[in-house]
Specification:
InterPro entries: R2K_3 (IPR025643). It holds the Pfam family R2K_3. This is ATP-grasp domain-containing protein. By secondary structure, the protein is of the alpha+beta class. It contains ten helices and 15 strands. The chain has three domains: 82 residues; 112 residues, 2-Layer Sandwich (D-amino Acid Aminotransferase, Chain A, domain 1), CATH 3.30.470; 76 residues. Strands 1, 2, 3, 4 and 5 form a five-stranded mixed β-sheet that branches. A four-stranded antiparallel β-sheet has the order 6-9-7-8.
Amino acid sequence: MDLLFPCDYDDLTTPDPDFAVEVRAARAAGFVCHFFDFNALRAGEPYRLPQGEGPLLYRGWMLSDTEYVGFYTRLVARGWEPITPPAAYDEAHYLPLAYPNLIGETPRTKWILGRDEAEAWALYAAEFRTKDAILKDWVKSAKYRWREACFLPAGTERERFAEIFANFLTERSTLFEKGVVLREFHPFRVLHKDLRGMPLHEEYRLFFWDGALLLLPQLTLLPGPEEQLPRWTALAQRFGTRFLSLDVARDLAGDWWVVETGDGQVAGLPGSIPPDAFYRALRLVGG
């Protein structure tokens, strides 16, 4: 299996600086690494993909469903066997598509297609008004503006909802994905809050390959999510993607919940997973 990374903006033969450490670790683990112009793909401009054969795993920036279909199709045309087909990518990447696999394991979630504020308000008023909730799109929130563009305290009034919603759309801008998601806020264990009031939870990212844990992250507190490994493995095996990320957090009662899932190709490495260890583990399972 070879790897494909975004290239540097000015040089198609070197990695995007944000992935340079990962590329060094991947090569040290024995992977052959290729590069392509992600910025051209994102801009809808012509871009070149390497010719090759055999299995290929992408590691890079997130793609929308339509971008990924085109990307996947072009890789196949260039001779590759991409690891993750489009339907499997979408299921892991978009929360409303992942949610049927997570009911009872993640906070209650409702959604709409599109960005209509009146429709989003109607959903909030009907389903969440008596509960604290958070606002996001089908992939990401604007949690770095926690009070202004993400968190909806119980009983939020129409005018305030409209302000938070407008801030959220401004922050997500062209990265807004597909529709609006509302989630019941769950009181996870807070390690600390940043200057903007955003809570930083006891949360870990787990990677699974073919339904098995790839490696255990470095833990902040013990015991960690490894004590629930059979549970996480069973959840990972519900998904169609071979390479899944599963973010889990501990609540105030000590119970673990799934925060979100993602396709492993576009899930960033947290500080708890050293790149060298990650790519050595990936080499063992991916060849």
